[in-house]
Amino acid sequence: MIQKPLAGIIAAGVVLGVGELVAVPFGPNASPFFAVGSAVVDNTPEAVREWAIDTFGTADKTALFIGMALVIAAIAAGAGMLRRPLGAVLFGVLGVIGVLAAVTRSTATPLTALPTILGVAAGIVVLNALLKTKDPVAGGVSRRSFLGLALAAGVVAVAAGTAGRLIGHARDVTANRLGFKLPVPTPQTPIPDGADLRIDGLASYITPNEDFYRIDTALVVPQVSSEDWSLRIHGMVEREIEITFEDLMSRQAVERTVTLTCVSNIVGGDLVGNATWIGYPLRDFLEEAGIQDDADMVLSSSHDAFTAGTPLDVLLDGRDALLAVGMNGQPLPVEHGYPARLVVPGLYGYVSATKWVTDLEITRFDKASAYWTDRGWGERGPIKTASRIDTPRSGAAVDAGTVVIAGVAWHQHTGISGVDVQIDDGNWVAATLSEEYSTDTWRQWTYQWDAAPGDHTIRARATDADGDIQTSMTADTVPDGATGYPKAFVTVR
User: Fold this and answer.
1) 386-492 maps to CATH 2.60.40.650
2) In whole angstroms, what is the distance from residue 403 CA to residue 56 CA?
3) CATH 3.90.420.10: does it fit domain 195-375?
4) Pair 135, 143: CB distance under 8 Å
5) CATH 2.60.40.650 in the chain, residue ranges
6) Binning pLDDT at 50, 70 and 90, where does residue 150 land?
C-alpha cells in the first residue's frame, strides 16, 4: 500500500523539477513552486503574516517553503491513493492553480504558464506509470520494477530541478556585482569611537551586511545587472527622465550612515539595523524632473513590481534620502537591492526602502496606493521612538552583583536624547548614552545594575531629541508600527 502515496510524492517531485527547468528562460517566478508561493505571500491575511514574522523573523520565507513542501507532499500522497484517473485529475486541478498563480504576476506573459503545464503533464505521466505497477501475484509489474521506475523518476525530478537552479544561477547577477566598481563618495564625518560601546551582547553600532535584517515580498531575489538597470521618473513632473548607471557615473556620490527599521518589528525586536550607505541624493533627481505643485507622493516600484508610497515632502526637506548603490563599503548585496535601492531616514521601510528600484512615479496619495497600504497599513509610516534591551537577554540567569544592562534606541531623523531603565516596579533611572553621531542613526545605551538574587523584570524607555518619551501604550505592528516598553525577565543567582 505504501507505494501508492510514494508514487504521488515522486510524481509531484517531477512536476516541480521539470517546471523549474522549463522556467529558466522565463525567470524564476514562472516556476510552479515559486509562483504559488508568491501568490500565497500576496494573499495571506495580515494577522497570519505578522504571526509568521513574529515567529520566524527573517526565516519567514524558509518557513513558508517548508510548509508548502509539506502540503504538496500530503496532497500528492493523497493523489496517489485515489483510484485512477482521479489522482491525475487532482494533479490537473493543482496545475490550474499553478498556472493562475504564474500568469497573474505583474511581469507575466502567456508563456509564463508553460513551465507549470509541462511540469504537470510530466507528473501525470509518471504518476500513471507508477500506479500501473501492482503486486506480481495479481499479474502486474513487480515491486522491483516499481522501485526501479520510482528511482528513475526521482532522478529525473532532482536532475531537472538542480539543472534549472544551476542554469538560473548562471543567469544571475553575481558576476556583474563582483565586477561593479563603487563610486568614490564625498566622505561623511568620521564615526567617533564613542558611538560604539563595544559591550558583549550589545549590537554593534554598524550592522554587518550578513546580519542586516531582510523582510520583503520577494520569494525569489530579483536578478538585475547594473548594465540592464535604469530608473524612470515620471508622472506629475515637468519632464520625464530616465537614469542609467552610465548617467550616475557623471554624478557625485555621497556617504551616509542611516538606521532602517521594518514596520513589522515587534517591541524589542531585531528587524532594525544601521549601515553606511553610498548613493545619490534623491532630491537632485526629483528637482531635475520638475515636480508639479500639487504632487504629494512618490510611488516607487521595484523590478518585481512591489510598490511603496513615500511622502514627497520627506524627500525634499533636506534629509539624506538616497538612491543607494553601496552598503558598508561594498556594492549592495543582491538580497538587499542590488544594483540600486531607496534609503530614507525617518520612515518605516514599507513606505521608503524599496529594493531593486526601477521606477518613481510622482503622484498624489488620493490618486494612487501602494502594496502594503492596499492591505490596510498606514499611508505615511513615520518612525516611532523605540528602544531595545540587548543584554541580558530575557530568560537569562546572571550572577548577583554588578550586571551590565545595554541596548539601543532610535528615532531616525529626530534623534535620541535619553534612555531610562526600570527594575521591577522601581523608579526610572537614567542610562548612559553612547556618543551621538547622527540623528538618523540609533544610539547605544548602558546601565550598571547592582543585582540582588531573585527574579526581576527590566524595562527600558527612550526620550527623543524633541523631549517626547517613548509611549508605554501597547500597540500591534499593524497598521503603523508597534509601541510599548521592551522587557527582559532575568533570574539573579
Assistant:
1) yes
2) 30
3) yes
4) yes
5) 386-492
6) low
Cell of residue 109, nine digits: 506573459
Per-residue pLDDT reduced to its tens digit, 115-130: 889 888 888 888 888 7
Angle at 341 between CA 337 and CA 347, to 5 degrees: 115
Cell numbers for 354:
524599496
Sequence ranges of the chain with CATH classification 3.90.420.10? 195-375
pLDDT band at 139, cuts 50/70/90?
Answer: very low
Q: Residue 43, CB half-sphere, CA atoms under 13 Å: how many? A: 9
The per-residue pLDDT for 137 is 39
| Separation between Cα atoms, residue 302 and residue 321, nearest integer Å | 17
